[in-house]
Amino acid sequence: MNIFRLAGDMTHLFSVLVLLLKIHTIKSCAGISLKTQELYAIVFATRYLDIFTNHISPYNTIMKLIFLGSSFSIVWYMRYHKIVRRSYDKDQDTFRHYILILPCLILALLINEKFTFKEVMWTFSLYLEAVAILPQLVLLQRTRNIDNLTGQYVFLLGAYRALYIVNWIYRYFTEDHFVHWISMYSSVSLHLLLQVGSHGSWICGLVQTLLYADFFYYYFQSWKNNMKLQLPA
């Protein structure tokens, strides 16, 4: 594991901790999209089917358990906790997230490294994670006013994806046999994948990170000017 991979993992972990901190300390999920959290729960559930059958390292197993447990607990809090659920803005969180699932599944069935159940599910989780943030970004644009913890949560998620791209670039130049195109998190465009061929991994990895580009711009502007974070409608 290189420093960029470790930094990406820790940034991802911190994003989850920030969200859990908000939910546990102020008993609020205002500004958080339940649709995105449900998609992440599906992502981790389908990615870590081998958690008890394929032991890589204690670090790997612990991280899998953390992301599985945290994603389902967040969904539970937002749906069923008698206090937290009251702060959920259901009227604004209207992105039809289920329409993202079927295209990702079809793409995973068509484009994968090995046509087995676990491999297809793992590939499906990669495609779904690439677009899982969309309901959250749409919600932030609708509500516009974003509290600090919500802003930090989304920023850390975007930073995690950016660090993973640096990790892939580093591995490409330092590991002779690193040609794992699917782990570069491709986009959900089959046509694009067929057109770009072996270079599609780089382009598609950037596509996912670019989903955060608009948010990053306004996040740094608010930080630079010491103002409350707001996104344009």
UniProtKB/TrEMBL annotation:
Subcellular location(s) of the protein = Endoplasmic reticulum membrane
Topology within the bilayer? Multi-pass membrane protein
The primary site where this protein sits is: endoplasmic reticulum
Give the record's GO biological process terms: protein retention in ER lumen; protein transport; vesicle-mediated transport
Membrane spanning stretches: 56-77, 98-115, 121-140, 152-170, 200-220
From the UniProt annotation, give the residues forming the signal peptide.
1-31
Q: This protein's superkingdom? A: Eukaryota
Q: Which InterPro entries match?
A: ER_ret_rcpt
Q: What GO molecular functions are on record for this protein?
A: ER retention sequence binding
Which key words are in the record?
Answer: Endoplasmic reticulum, ER-Golgi transport, Membrane, Protein transport, Receptor, Signal, Transmembrane, Transmembrane helix, Transport
Q: Which GO terms describe its cellular component?
A: endoplasmic reticulum membrane
Protein family according to the UniProt entry:
Belongs to the ERD2 family.
Protein name per UniProt: ER lumen protein-retaining receptor
Organism this protein belongs to: Gossypium australe
